[in-house]
Amino acid sequence: MALKGVVAERLAGKKREVAGMIAEKSTLFEELRHLNLLLVEDDELLRNSLELFFENEGCRLLARGSAEEGLSVLRQQPFDVVITDFRLPGMNGLDFLRALQELQPDAQKILLTAYMNENVLAEAFRLGVHEFIEKPLSTDDVEDALVRILNRRGGAGKICQ
Amino acid sequence: MSWIYPALLGAAVAALVTTFFCLKRERRRLRRRTEAALYRQLEEFFAIFQAVEGGAYVADMESHEILAITGRNQELFGSNLVGSKCYERAGLGGGRGPCLFCSNRILVNPDGTPARPVVREFRNPADNHWYLCIDRAIHWPDGRLVRLEIAINITARKQAEENLRRSEHNFRELVENSLVGILLVQDGEIVYQNPEQRRLLGNMPNSLLLKDFTAIHPEDLAKVRESYRKINSGVVAQADLEFRLYSGGRRREGELVWVYCRARPIDFQGRKTMLISMVDISQAKELERLVRVQDKMSSLGRVAAGMAHEIRNPLSGINIYLGTLQRMYDRPEMRARVEEIFQRLMAASAKIEAVIQRVIDFAKPGQLQVRALDPNQPVAAALELATVILERHGIVPELEAAAELPLCRIDRQQIEQVLLNLLTNSAEAMEQLPPGARRLLRVRTLMAEGMVEIRVDDSGPGIPAGVRERILDPFYTTKGDGTGIGLNISHRIISDHGGRLEVAKSDLGGARFRVMLPPESGMRKT
């Protein structure tokens, strides 16, 4: 119950913030252009659409179809933001996040889920997931989540090289 | 010469006296010889009764004194009883006076000649045995009329008769009070129906001809006719089937009742008779329907999580593409890109519709709607439907479909449901395997034992032999959260198709489920 409350608050907070963050949103992609983004999503259509979306904004988004492939690129280069689906063939999103936490603890984590489940949420919180995006997601959902992440990170003054 | 006459007279007298005594002696000798012969005959006659269960005796009609007696049972028929009263060892007079039913007075006609023998059965209170008694007056060697009684012990026969009577009574009680409706049919005509049967079908006239089958639901008529024909022609020894009846015996009268019916030919009173018994299973059927719905809902729940994923992914794709399109809208140099996006949008939309259609089909309520179909079709459909679940378990199913299968009369949705159930069961069973273990799932279609077989093999932990017999039972489950209904429903669905569901050990190491379906006759592909 408490957990659901937290999630609800976070989701509501998300909506409230949107209005006050138009300015930031307008400059979001300028900031993002300096960052490395990784997407792990097995659904080809969604993966392609997000790739195109970021490409169209001139951002560097590397997209992979499985956690294993995601890990292999994580071992080669650092990422500022990692967006991963929860349900993946083979290694699932949570295990991937666990591995990510060890490899690159500073990376910002966004979890995509189609089917919210308390156990999954609790585990994701524990692993320090910064943002959840529930499917079906829209470009606004993605932008809002990224804005919030950049704001928080910006506050901490730490940006990836 | 006067002395000569008296002398002559004396001599004559002496001769007469001598002759008289001689004659008397001769007569006595003759009588003794006759009596001895009679006694001998009686003895020989009596000797026969040494071989009979029971015995015989002769008693005086007045004094009831036993004059002669013989028999195997010495207590009742011992020779030491000569001189005692016949009623002392038998009779209902309590041994103190002549029996109440003593036959003496009717053994002799009014003119003093012996009457016809008196035959009766009676239970002797002395030994509690039943006797068949034949009484007749006979001439005793001394000339008087005496009573001869031959008593044959018929206790065993009496007991057998009693047992038979009791058993018949019990049997009748059993049949009359049975919770099962029982019908006897001779030449298509009802000759007997018990009360439960009357309740089930209404009070049908005994002469009703069954061959019209007016009481049977039109959809079940063909099935019933076929079973009736098979039994009548001796193709099968017994038929078991379920069908719907109009409780009034005729359509539009009464309500529909589901019955489980068994019919087998018997010999009844020397005539070829059909013994038909039926149980009202309407409630069970209703429960089964409810359980089927519930089970469908629970499997739907299981599928729903997968469906959410399947729908929300393309929906997300659409949203992202739309968002991107919005940004490209006023940039003509992006035209080619936009075209591509439109294509992808349409594909995503179609994908969502396909997913929804599958869910709707799956949830459809189930009367059997059979169609002649290539059995490979539902196999392929079920595999497609199960892909999400299987992928989640890290399983890539293997399909070996036989190319030349005969068509089967099947309800596509229901067979798909059965296969989906088997596939998810396999996937869940393989969940128990240690990580890194092989997770193999193979689906094959083939011809076996004259039937079309759909075989699902997995490399899971398998089903122990003890569980194998029970696994198709309703409510039997080895899963903590299972209802134990899935396989039972599957079993029923396959039975409804005239096929069978079998469990065995797989060569992949786990379980093998065999769905055996009868091919549609005369429709073999060449």
Automatic annotation (TrEMBL), chain B:
User: Which residue ranges does the record assign to the PAC domain?
Assistant: 239-293
Report the CDD domains cross-referenced here.
HisKA, PAS
Q: Which InterPro entries match?
A: HATPase_C_sf, HATPase_dom, His_kinase_dom, HisK_dim/P_dom, HisK_dim/P_sf, PAS, PAS-assoc_C, PAS-like_dom_sf
Q: Does the keyword ATP-binding apply?
A: yes
Chemical reaction(s) catalysed? ATP + protein L-histidine = ADP + protein N-phospho-L-histidine
Bilayer-spanning residue ranges: 6-23
Write the protein's name. histidine kinase
